[in-house]
């Protein structure tokens, strides 16, 4: 079993920045993909960014150039630096690990005010 705990959400004005963190614990395979997904009210959950254990990152077009995903394999953490935030970035952000089993965190709310 793997547990994922997110932190760092909150309220920020448009144009501001936030940094999300996710800590994984439990039986973690050294080969995995970690990522961030988000779900806005009334919408489906969508991919924000993923990163492999080798460091290859992938981003949704809507966040390219504004968000940066990073990870620390030794600490089993993944971070999401979010800059130039927009009101449309408002959502609950979820951490996900695929090992290939899939694990989700409980989410952290990000609210961007205009």
Describe the structure.
By secondary structure, this protein is mostly beta strands. The chain has strands spanning 2-7, 10-13, 18-26, 33-39, 46-52, 57-59, 67-72, 77-82, 91-98, 102-104, 108-113. The strands form 2 sheets. Strands 2, 4, 5, 6, 9, 10 and 11 form a 7-stranded mixed sheet that branches. The protein is globular. The model has no long low-confidence stretch (mean pLDDT 96).
Task: Summarize the topology.
Blueprint: E1 2-7, E2 10-13, E3 18-26, E4 33-39, E5 46-52, E6 57-59, E7 67-72, E8 77-82, E9 91-98, E10 102-104, E11 108-113
Parallel strand pairs: 2-11
Antiparallel strand pairs: 1-3, 3-8, 4-5, 4-9, 5-6, 7-8, 9-10, 9-11
Short summary of the structure?
With 114 residues, this protein is mainly β. 0% of the residues lie in helices and 57% in strands.
Mean residue pLDDT: 96
Distance between the termini: 40 Å
Largest sheet: 7 strands, mixed
Net shape: globular
Structural class: mainly beta
User: Helical stretch count?
Assistant: 0
What is the helix fraction of residues, given as a range?
A: under 10%
Q: What's the β-strand tally?
A: 11
β-strand amount: over 45%
Low-confidence stretches are: none
Order of secondary-structure elements: EEEEEEEEEEE
Gyration radius (Cα, Å) is: 13 Å
Question: Which features characterize this protein?
Answer:
114 residues, 11 strands, mainly beta, 57% strand, single chain, 4-stranded antiparallel β-sheet, 7-stranded mixed β-sheet
